[in-house]
Amino acid sequence: MSALTVEEPRSPETAPDALAGFTIGVTATRRREEFCALLERRGARVVSAPAIRLVPLAEDTDLLAATRHSLEAPLDDVVVTTGVGFRGWMAAAEGWGLSAELSRHLTRARLLTRGPKARGAVRAAGLNDHWTPATESCEEVKQHLLAHDLRGRRIAVQLHGEPLTEFVAELRAAGAEVIEVPVYRWLPYRDISPLRRLVSQAISGGVDAVAFTSAPAVLAMLGSARADGLDDALLSAFSGRVVAACVGPVTAQPLVSKGVPVIQPERSRLGALARALARHLPEHGVTRLMAGGHGLEIRGHAVAVDGELKPLPPAPMAVLKRLADKPGHVVPRSELRTVLPGGASRDSAEHAVEMAVTRLRRALGPGGIVETVVKRGYRLATHREDGL
Predict the structure, then answer these.
(1) In whole angstroms, what is the distance from residue 370 CA to residue 287 CA?
(2) 331 with 357: CB under 8 angstroms?
(3) Distance of alpha carbon 214 from alpha carbon 1, whole angstroms
(4) I need a surface site. Which of 60, 98, 171, 307 has the fewest CB within 10 A?
(5) Is the pTM of this model over 0.90?
């Protein structure tokens, strides 16, 4: 399964209410407030569920050991995978009194940067970068290195939260001495309950999309689902109505490897990811139809009636979406019972359906949109618009 790249428009802006009526889960820890604000400014309802946290660099004895190992002899190549990681490495080395010596080693080595952020961090440190792949992928960096004779070369590889097992193994098989530099380590977020709730919301359809800004966050969400026996259900949700949006190909890889369709922007930036969602969801996550002479636009948790957006509670929205699946056809109460949130006895569920329909009609405003067919059920007085 390949990722769908959402192209940037000529104008970088999207409609200010493009995401109105949609709920988006955000798993980011770093720059979380900034990214949530980007989505909320476009009208989205945001569910924040931090998935991971960073181990403070100065407390990481593995990084200190790797740094000392790197300084034992000249380095031939240094792979810089992330800007924040490289800056953290330099800051930690300064705290240990090793920054001058590390800078000397890096000055004499070839610095291969995975993307523009890593390249910018290298240049900001007063160092020269030697090469950056067009794809911003570790795979292209690996192939670039393997195209040369690596026998006897010392290569430091800055990790980005997860082991690069295959990357390192292939370099070593080619004869290189590889030093793995764990500049930062990802650990589960201290309070995992928001992430567990987001897993449940994704499975139940309570969110329309989940946005990921790092591969470890993807792995953390999949791991949380697996711990509760919900991994298959979560993957099924991502393959169905819930959009998995990733900031770039590295972030998308854990989902793509499991056959999950993802969307991603052309440029791996938070702003570009927000714009990608603001274009994709209104195009692919909206049902448009005519009912009772009124135009309806059904979104995640709201419906626009003749252009006026009306938020709906979960039960009326669930009923409306099921009726819209079969526009103009009668949907029996027994079928509508199955889409209502929560469980209930048959008698109470019958009443719950009636109440949900009553609340739906009240929220919609104009009459004649939802019709009652006596002793059979309910239907939308509608047909789908051609081409929608």
Answers:
(1) 16
(2) no
(3) 19
(4) 307
(5) no
Structural Rg of the chain based on CA atoms: 26
Question: Model confidence at 17, in pLDDT bands (50, 70, 90)?
Answer: confident
Q: Can you tell me which residue has the tokens 């190992």?
A: 69
Using one digit for the tens of pLDDT, what is the confidence trace for 63-119? 999 999 999 999 999 999 989 889 989 988 998 999 999 999 999 999 999 989 899
Q: Where are the beta strands (DSSP E) in 121-256?
A: 154-158, 177-181, 186-188, 209-212, 243-246
Sheet strands side by side (includes 4-6): 4-6, 262-265, 243-246, 209-212, 23-26, 45-48
Query: What's the confidence (pLDDT) of residue 186?
Result: 78
The rounded percent of the chain whose pLDDT value lies above 70 is 91
Query: In the 8-state DSSP scheme, what is residue 273?
Result: H
State the residue for tokens 């930036």. 269
Gap between the Cα atoms of 152 and 177, Å rounded:
7
pLDDT higher than 60, residue 1: no
Mean pLDDT, rounded, of the chain: 89
H or E stretch including 37?
A: helix 32-40
Alpha helices in 285-377 (DSSP H): 314-325, 333-337, 346-364
pLDDT of residue 7: 56
User: Measured between alpha carbons, how far apart are the two ends of the chain, in Å?
Assistant: 26
CA 3: distance to chain centroid? 12
Widest CA span in the chain: 85
- 383 token code pair: 């047909």
SS3 label, residue 209: strand
By CB neighbour count within 10 A (0-12 exposed, 13-18 middle, 19+ buried), where does 345 fall?
exposed
